[in-house]
């Protein structure tokens, strides 16, 4: 029996949730579910209760229908509708999948309202929001290898989130794409700093080896309380680097449509706050997960709108500050 490959999705793809990567695996985890729920909360996605609510969202254009194509087919999908970004991802992934191995991609689940969730579904499942999908895992062979390699690549390359979303927003200028990649990198660095102990408990380490060495922390001892003060120093340095990418990303907002700029400014503010919480908590930063309060998120909805108006309206015709030459840039974005 083929097993379903469950993939949580937001924005660009069904597994790029601005999240820290799960090392060399596409298996689900509690941490990945937490990140999916955070993204749903951040963007105020509704958890749809029943089929009537799903239809209302379709009528409002918040969910769009998916139809079988020569690149993919739907198997047992009760509600063949999803967020527009999910459909875009499926269309593009399926096209490349078929070109690579000659088979159609199989989608086994999309939006599932709460009333239709299976008994074994997690209570934190984001399927009722329309931002998730399940794919059928192919038999061992070239198709499975291609699919897993491709999804893991996407998962590990956080900057692709910003770049792809910028394309979706209708902007393809290379200078703006560089700023978009900067935002994705800043998000990922923030996630790494926040999830240090969660990752360490699962045998993972995403902190730069050089920083660990400079602070005298053996990678396998990150969770050891003896090294906690030094690990905090590493996280602080990582967040200082993230701040440089956040600042660089802000210069690209002026090129976006106003509504898109508003969403980006809001998300940027909320994610940067996560880093500020980690910094403020010091050695107790990982006793509980750093979470931005709902009132603070509402603040960023307002502040993000103001910043978007300023960036798009007042600064659009001003020259952006030069991008720092020592920031990493993906080859090919010229």
Please describe the structure with a list of short key phrases separated by commas or semicolons:
single chain, 334 residues, alpha+beta, Farnesyl Diphosphate Synthase, four-stranded mixed β-sheet, 50% helix, 7% strand, globular, disordered N terminus
Please characterize this protein's 3D structure:
Helix 6 (174-194) runs parallel beside helix 10 and helix 9 (228-250) runs antiparallel to helix 10. The protein has a 4-stranded mixed beta sheet. A two-stranded antiparallel ribbon has the order 2-4. The protein folds into 2 domains: 4-156, no CATH class; 171-314, Farnesyl Diphosphate Synthase. It has 11 helices and 6 strands. It is an alpha+beta fold and 334 residues long.
Question: Layout of helices and strands, plus pairs?
Answer:
Elements: E1 4-8, H1 30-42, H2 51-59, E2 64-65, E3 72-74, E4 81-82, H3 84-101, E5 105-109, E6 132-136, H4 142-156, H5 159-168, H6 174-194, H7 196-201, H8 209-214, H9 228-250, H10 258-281, H11 294-314
Helix pairs in contact: 5-6, 6-9, 6-10, 9-10, 10-11
